[in-house]
Every structure is written in C-alpha cells, then in structure tokens.
Amino acid sequence: MSTLLDVRDVSKSFGGNAVVNHVSLSVEDGSSLGLVGSNGAGKTTLFRLIAGELAVDSGDILFQGRTLPPRADDRARIGIARTFQIVELFGGQTVLDHLLVALQAHQRRQGPWRDLVHGGRTTPEERAACMEILSVVGLDDRAQAPASTLPLGERRAVELARALVCGPRLLLADEPSSGLDGGETAQLISIINRVRRETGLAIVVVDHDLATVEALADHVVAMDAGSVIAHGTFAEVTTNVDVMRSWLGVTP
Amino acid sequence: MSNFLSYTLQSVPWGCTFALVAVGLVLTYRATGVFNFGFGAEAYAAGVIYTELFDHGVNRVWAAVIVVCVVAPVFGAVLEAGLFSRIPVGNTTAKMVTALGVMVVLPSIVQLFPGTGNLQAPFAPFFAPVIPIFQVGSFFINGIELTTVLATMVTLLLLMALLYSKRFGLPMRAAVESPKLLELTGVNSRSVLRSSWMVATMLAGLAGVLFAPVETPVTPTNYSIILVAAIAAAAVGALRSLPLAVVGGVALGMVQGVVQGYIPQTSVWYSALVPSLPFFCLLVLLLVHPGMRTLDQSSDPMMAVEPPPPTPALAQRPPHINRLIHRFRWILAATFALIVITFSPGPWIAALTIGGAYSVIFLSITLITGLAGQLSLAQAAFAGIGAATTAQLTINQHVPALVAAVAGAIVAGGGGWVASLPALRLRGLPVTLLTLCLALLADNLLFPTSWIGGGANGLTVPRPHIFGIDFSDVDSKSFLLLVLAVVLAVSGVVHVLLRGTTGRALAAVHASPVGAASSGVAVRRLTMFVFFLSAAIAGIGGALFAMSFLQESPSDFSWFWGPTFLVIVVTVGATTVEGAIEAGFGYALIAQALTYLPSTGSSSSNAVQSAVTVLVLSFGAFTYASHPEGIVEAAKRGIATTVLRAVPANPFERVGRKNS
Amino acid sequence: MSVLELTDVHAGYGPYKALTGVTLSVQSGDAVALLGSNGVGKSTLVRVASGLVPTSQGQVCVLGRDIRGESVHALARRGVVHLPEGVGLFGDLSIEENLLLRLRRVPAPTRRRRLAEALEALGPLGSRRRTKARLLSGGQQRLVAVTGALAAQPTLLLADEPALGLSPAAADEVYAALERVRSTDTTLIIVETRLGRVENLCDRAVVLSSGRVAYDGPTSGAQDVLTGLIQRQPE
Ligand SMILES: Nc1ncnc2c1ncn2[C@@H]1O[C@H](COP(=O)(O)OP(=O)(O)OP(=O)(O)O)[C@@H](O)[C@H]1O
Ligand SMILES: [Mg+2]
User: Three-state SS for C4?
Assistant: First the structure.
C-alpha cells in the first residue's frame, strides 16, 4: 500500500486565529480515516484546504506523491471528491443532471466545444454510467426528480452519488450522517463500505456520531483547537483522556 | 499650494452630493438587501415634483418638506408592497432586475407628463439663492452648497444612529437576511422592511430636492451621472459602511476638483478624463477592494420553509405540445417570414431589419444572463465596439463589410474576455457594477474618440456586397434576409449551449459554486468563454445594427441602453432563445408602430415615443420575481395548459399508431 | 392548562402534503419528544405550531387561543420560541447581535444580565462575541442558536433537532441545559431522530409516521414502535 494523501505540517489562520495549526496526517491508498473533534476544531477547514477551496498558509499537501494543483476543480478531476456538512446541491436540477455535470466535467467532455460539435446531447454511455451509480446509492427511481424537492437523506445520497460518479481515489465526507435517522445512517454506511470494497476508494470521514465513525473508519485522528491531539484505532482514540474531555465530554 | 487648497475645498459641497446619494445607496442596500439602481431615477422624480410644486406657487421649504416627508415615503411603501415584497429573499438577481426596472421605467413615466422635458429648478429649499453666505479663506460658500454639506452631515449622523441602533437597526439588518427567522424572534418583519424602504426613498427624495438646483435643467441623465459617482463613493466602504461612503464621496469630489483645476479646460483630457474619473475609481475599487468578494454571499437560513420556486415554462410544457411545436416550428416560421417579407411596405422592412439586429444583441444577453446567471450592463457597449470596429475597418482599411463585422465581433469579444477576468473572483452585484463601469468608460472614452467611435457624428457603415447582390437600399429585402440568416445562426449556437453540457454546468456553478468546483467543473474556463462569446455576439449585433442604418452613431450604444436592453430581455424571457428574438422584433416593431401616432415633430414627442416603447416592454421586469422565465414565456405556458385542457388526448400519437 | 392543541391538522407545501390529520394535546410543563424517521412531518408539525406553515384543515390552539389569522411574530411574543431546523442564525450578524434579537422583548437591565449569562454559557465562543455568525463552524452556529432560544425563556419551546451537528460533549451540555429549563415551567417539544438522546429528558414521546401520529405515550414504549416502523419500510 502506498500513501495516497499526505498532509504535512499544514497551517491556516483567519485574522490571527490559528484554525488549523501544524497538522500532519496521511491516508493510505484504499484505507479509511475518521477525523473527529469538538465543534470548531478545524475539521471542515482542513477539508477545505485539501479540496482546494482555501489555500494553505504554510505546509504541503501531497496527493499520490505530488503537490496538488491550486484550484478546486483541478483537484476534483485528479480524484479528490467531497461531500459537504450542509449539502451543496445544484438547486432545482434533476438528480441525473447532477451526476451528468460531474461525469462530463471529469471526462473533459463538457463545454462549448462539445456542444457546438456534437450538439450537446447526452450520450447513452454517460446516462448508463450515471444510472449505475444511482442504483448503487438506491436513487435509480429518483433520476428525474428535482434534487431540491427530495428529503434530506436522499439529498445526501445525491451528493454522495455525484462525488462517486467520476471514480475518485479519495472521498472527503463531512458529517455524512448528520440529520439522518437511524435507518438512513445504516444504509449510508453500507453503501460507502460496499463502494470501498468494490473500488478500493480511500475515505476521510468527519462525524460526531460514534457509531458511524466506528463503522466507517479503520483509523481515527482526533483534533482540538486546530491541532491533532490523538491518533490510533477507534478504541484507542475514544479512550484517550484528552479526546474524552474535549470531544466526548466525559471526565475519565 | 493655495490653488490646490482652494480647488479641494471648493469641491467639498460637490463631493457631499455624491456622499449623500452614496449614503442613501448603502442604507438601502443594508436595510432592504436591494442595490437600488433606481435611486437616481427616484431622485429625479423627486426633483421634478419639487420643481413642479414650486412652479405651482408652493413655497420652497414647503415643497421640499412635501416631497421628502410625504411623497417619497409613500412611494417607498408602494415600491415595497407592490414589487420588492414579492421577491423571495434569496433571489438577488430578481432584486437587481427589479431595481434596474425602476431605473429604466420611472424616468420614462415622468417624461410622459407634458412639460417635464425642460424644467428649471428653484433654488435650494433653506437658504437664500446663490448669494455667498460663508467665507472660507479666499472663496465663498453659497446657500445651495451650505445646505448640501449640512444635509449630508446630519443625514450621516441620523442614519448611523438608526442603522447601528439595537432597537431599529438590528431588526432592519436581520430582515434583509431572513424575514421568516426575524418573525420567530417576535418582530413584524413586513413592517420593518416597509419602514426601511420608506427611509430609503426619503433619502432619494432629499437627494433629488438638493440636487435639482445645482444641475439645471432637471434631466434624468444628470441624476444618473450622480448615481454612478455615488456608487464609486459607496464602493470605498465596500457598499456597506456609511461613514466610509461619505469619506469616499467627499474625496471623489475633491479629486475631481483638483483635476478640473489643473487640467486646462481646452485640453482634450478635460472633456474625457474629468467625467470618467468616478468610473475609474469604481473600477479600481471593484478590482482591489477585498470587501467586494464577500458581497452577495448570504443566503436565507429559512429557505426550506418556502415552497419551491415555479419551474420554467419549457419544463412544464407537456411533452407532446413540445413535440408539436418542435415538429412544425420551422415550417411555420419560414412561411410567416416569407409572407411578411413579401408584403411589408418599405418602412416596415427597415424596422424588421433593425429588429433582427436587436435580436442578435439580445441573444448575447440570453447567453450571459440566461446561461451564466450574470447580469451584464455592458452589452450595448460591446455592440457599440463591434459597430465601431466594423466602421473603421471598412472605411479606412477597405475591408469587406462582412469580414469587418467578424473582426468587430472578435474585438468586442476581447472586451468581454477582459470583463471576465475579475468576474472569476467576484460574483453577483460587483460583477454587474463592473460591467456598468466598462459601459460608462466605453461611452466616455472610446466612442467619442475619432479613431474609435468616430465622435458625436459617428461613422458611415457600408453594407456588404456579396455574390453580386447589392444590399444597400435602406429597405432592402435581401439585407433583411441576410440579417435573418445571422439571427438564425446565432440563435442556433445559443440554443445548443443553453440546452447542452455548457448550460447544465453553468447552472450548477450558479446554484453552488463550491459544489460545482468540487465536482470538477472548470468554472474559470466556462466563465471566460461565455463572457467572450456573449460580447462577440453583441458585437455582431452592433455591426448589423449600424449597417441597417448605414451609420454608426455612439448615442445608439450609450451606456443607458445596457440596462434597458437587459430589462427588456429579462422581461420577455432570458432563459430561451425565443425570448430574445421576440424581444428584438417586438421592440423594433412597437417603435415603428408608434410612428403612426400623431406627432408634433418636436424632439419631446420623440422622447415620448421611445419612452412608451421602453415602458411597454419593460414593465414586466416587475413580474420577474414570479416569472423568472419571462412573461411571454409564462403566457405561452398558460396557453399551452389551456389548449391541453381543450384537447385531452394527444391526436398525433393516435395518428401515428393507426399508421403503424 | 393546555399549551398546544392540534385537532385533525392537515398541512403541507404547495401540492405536497406533509401532515394528514394530526391530533395532539400538550399540557403545561410537559416535555414531549417528537420522533420518527426523516420526512414524516416532524418539522412541519412544529412549524405549524409556531405559525410558519399554515394549515389547510383542522384547528391549532396555542396557549389556549386559536392561532388562525395570527402572525408568526405575534405568536412569538406570546412566548412561543421556535428553534428552526438547520442553522437558525443570521449569518451577517455577530454572535452578540443574534443573541440580542432573541432578548429584544426583555427590559434593559435584565437583558444585559441574560446576555452576559448566555455568552458565559457559550464558553470560549463567548469571547468571540463580535464575530459574524457566518464565519463560525457548523456546530458552533447551532450552539449559538440553541443558547439564544434558551435565553429567551420561552413558555413553549419548539426545538427542531437542537443537537444537530454538535459534538457528543456539546450535545450533552445542550441537553443538560434543556433539563434545567424543564425544571422551570417551560413546556418542551423536542424533535429528535435518536431516541437515546431524549430518554432522560422527556417522559412522553410522540412518534409520527407518514404525516400521522403512530404512537403517543411514555418514552419507554417508543422504541418498539420505532423499530417496527423501520422494519416495515420497504428496502
Ligand atoms: N472564514 C473564516 N474566518 C474566520 N474564522 C473562520 C473562518 N472559517 C472558519 N473559521 C473558524 O475556524 C474554526 C474551525 O472551523 P471548522 O468549520 O473547521 O470547524 P469544525 O471542526 O468543522 O467544527 P464542526 O464540528 O462544528 O463542524 C471555527 O472556530 C471558525 O470560527
Ligand atoms: Mg465542520
């Protein structure tokens, strides 16, 4: 196994506030990492740095051994996919359109050139590829529904499908279970684990639900106030004194 | 040195005029969430009413009080109740279009009243006429100036107290973001928003009354000049800070005073540079001010409680109606066009030709607004650049007209590409302001220059000469056919982009920039391309427009047409190709029809005619909130539904089955 | 006294019907957990109670008065505090201003004291009182919203997933605060997807299923109903 993502001593501050403070962590190809920590620990900010939404102040982020291109869309095209803490969908577009946008962007078959030369129509192969992913996340009967009209659980599934449709190497999932009920969470976990088994996808998952983290992550890193305070297996991290105090709120 | 001092000091009152309007803009923006492009128009209306009251024998002070304290707030309440309260909170585009609608329509309405063309304002309300009151060093301050300075300072203090107060200001600022959430804290947000609008229009009224005596006669143009300068002043505080807006306004006035003082009035620079100074300031501020990036970012946290917005007509039209239209539209359109072209008398042929040229320009708006969701106020300027390039190349380089037109499109496209560069970092309002800036700069610097736009008289533009056909008759039918062919080609391109991968990707970017980027959509490349293509199409339209008059005149492309065109297209429908074409021909044909009205031959009746045309087409800007797809498109949906009810089954389906 | 009375309430958004005949009565001092999977109408029910969503049929009485025709703000002034789903903050206002909006109707000296208490309760966040809410992390925003709702000292608190996005530690603190509120005579209606969180706080649970009440009784009995509902769901 080789190192897929290597975050080296990365820092980011806003107005003098160190929000991510000399963080280092690495993700092996095909492995899964849980990222936990109190509210405002800097987990989402770290995701934004990795995905290219924000630029690092100092430090390096390597992906497959190389430095990443600066812009988010380029990073997405080389295999870093992401879902959001508060879902970011394309307004009233249909579920299928969400996937088509991502797929065509990934294959660089998107834009005026294609439209003018090929008439801009969707090919049957593209449609088939999208429908296949939709059936994986259990949304095949929703392909033509406008995404904004779906319940939260299905909106999260659309986001997941959109992230998976281009066959990423790394998925950054920010609180995937937040707002989901027990049944939906169980389903989500089984989808992600199945995709990981089949494609060897590596994931980093942020969540506050212990059961979700345990079910999804082989390895866990805990953060507090911008710094990494513990790492190890789920059991090790959740019994760490600092983690118990800052994240779990139990005094040992 | 003493010269310098007196130049700066002398222009403080002038700067205060900017400051006052700037403060009004900032307050409106912060308390209502609307960047009020209509502010200048409202001030103009107030100035007119003030003057009319005075002419009817009302005392100056009373006239001012009536305008500022009665007419203006009532108008504000009407605006809020009739227009802005109907727009969903998060829809910044609808807010901007509606404000632009006020900007375009209100002066037209005022000018429909006889005698408003040439008003001379009375003196300022509170002090004696232009008699010096104060002496500061070597120069004097007169009553008008003193009033302006005092009014600005008092207004600033009052508004700061208002906006930052916990009792009134806090709910005002909260209501902008989410009226629903504010209701949950026990505040009546409707009445908060209504009061905000009343205060905001009172400021416009005050500005109008104070400004009327400075710049006589009272014309809409004078007020829009002030508006733009005030936008630059407000940009100093990133459109959000009241004190910085005042600082910006006064500073701008001073800079203008100094420049005016040192550059000799006979110099070419004087006429070009001095008026464009505010635009340069605004441009620079838009590009470098870090506060601009965070504008237009808030979204209503209570969005989920609102019912989903209406779907565009195309999606709602039942599929078999779509198929019906699809199957026969070419035949129908061609037949119709043939009949019309064969039987139309000369002037109508000319009108149709112009309509075609308008359609092309309007299609460029469909592209940038309907596709990329960006409101551009510079499309008329791009058209002007296309026309000017064509004219220069054909006259001076003897390039064939069609080749010159293509070159014009490319030059205009280059302009669009330049505009896209800042648009990569900004979105929403600042980009719209940027296009406004570009249009104004083109208007003030490019078009009046003899080797570009040809100056006030413009340039002659020959028509093409291909295949031995001469197109040069004013009402040449063959030229009309040529124009129609271009319209057809351009609409084909725009249609394919709208419905293809580009349209889908750009809609995604518009709805969620982060989401789109995280899916790999090449936001920068697409944005640059759309800006380029849209400007290039406008350039072609401009060239055709000039050719159809055999003449390029800069006034046809003056900056004010930018917002006017935008409002017209959005009204008729900016999300479909048909919308732009209907708008283009509609505009030209209504204008032609109005020439049959009894005319007195005076210039004011011309003004009335163009006012009516604009009015007819742009009233729908106010329906934009409920019909983002445009009223004509909405009407079609209505008809389609009615037809559907009358014809329950799909007859064609049955025919098809029988045959097989 | 009855704080909330719903009789055969139907409500929804446009053509979509979220509630189809809900009847429910909540007495003063009750703490009711509103349970059920996503999309069964829990949020709609509390929105109906705070006047945000109008009913198409049925009657809603809040604090002994029919709310038909009553505006949302009038209801809020009668002591109904609704902590909405999602973030529930004004992103462009600072933490302090967001809290002050909740305390608007409190007389000045008391307001100052309660503001200080609320900032205190926010812990380290309290020292960033001038930060715009939009710049906070998701969980921090939720924490500020919950603190504001509690500071308003409601008669009826409608809390829609108060602990959404909070770390286990912060969620525990929020529920401890709700526990304290319960010992005053505030009536609580708490929307939750996880029964475990509300078991201690609420003695009564209402389970919704596709727009109707599927269970109404002691919290201890809700688990069976919930499992039953999940199993019946077609996969
Ligand atoms: N643009 C910004 N400007 C200033 N501060 C910011 C900005 N973005 C984030 N922060 C601060 O950085 C800290 C970390 O935020 P982040 O969203 O990464 O937290 P998090 O770990 O994801 O928390 P949560 O679990 O609540 O989602 C917070 O204190 C937040 O206020
Ligand atoms: Mg987070």
Answer: strand
